[in-house]
């Protein structure tokens, strides 16, 4: 049996969560309510990413440092949100067909960067933690 680290499990599961980021980008295309729908959905995706990565490390978000864990991850992910905002603004200048492809792609990339920041945070707190599958 090989040793599986939490960071490896988190990265595998993060790839599965990128669809949520892409869906948030699609939500942003809703006429009139797009910006609000995008903000709500990307925030929900980021919350799910942090919660799941904390669970992989065997922590509940409150036990893992609570607001400190969430704040540390969000600060580290500030670059992801800046990238997202810049791409979102640049998307206004793209032709509509290309915009519908670019925005979900950038949203998924921002979710990935956010997840990597969360993994880096938990890995710095709990280095080389071995993943143990929860009992079903």
Outline the fold blueprint.
Layout: H1 6-27, H2 34-56, H3 67-76, H4 78-91, H5 96-125
Compact summary:
The protein is built from five helices and no strands. It has 136 residues and is mainly α.
Molecular structure report:
This protein has 136 residues and is mainly α. The protein has helices spanning 6-27, 34-56, 67-76, 78-91, 96-125. Helix 4 runs antiparallel to helix 5. The longest helix is centred in the C-terminal third of the chain and has 30 residues, at 96-125. The mean pLDDT is 80.
Keywords for this structure?
elongated, 136 residues
- Give me the strand/helix succession: HHHHH
Which regions have little confidence, pLDDT < 50, spanning 5+ residues?
none
Strand content: under 5%
Terminal Cα span: 20 Å
User: How many DSSP helices?
Assistant: 5
Shape: elongated
Structural class, please? Answer: mainly alpha
Rounded mean pLDDT score: 80
Cα gyration radius (Å): 16 Å
What percentage of residues falls in helices of 4 or more residues? over 70%
Number of strands: 0
Biggest beta sheet attributes: none
């Amino acid at each position: 049996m090989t040793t599986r680290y939490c960071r490896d499990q988190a990265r595998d599961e993060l790839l599965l969560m990128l669809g949520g980021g892409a869906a948030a980008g699609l939500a942003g295309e809703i006429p009139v309510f797009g910006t609000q729908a995008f903000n709500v959905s990307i925030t929900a995706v980021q919350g799910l990413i942090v919660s799941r990565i904390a669970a992989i490390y065997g922590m509940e978000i409150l036990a893992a440092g609570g607001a400190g864990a969430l704040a540390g991850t969000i600060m580290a992910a500030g670059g992801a949100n800046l990238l997202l905002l810049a791409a979102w603004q640049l998307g206004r200048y793209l032709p509509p067909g290309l915009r519908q492809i670019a925005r979900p792609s950038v949203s998924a990339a921002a979710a990935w960067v956010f997840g990597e920041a969360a993994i880096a945070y938990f890995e710095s707190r709990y280095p080389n933690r071995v993943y143990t599958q929860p009992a079903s």
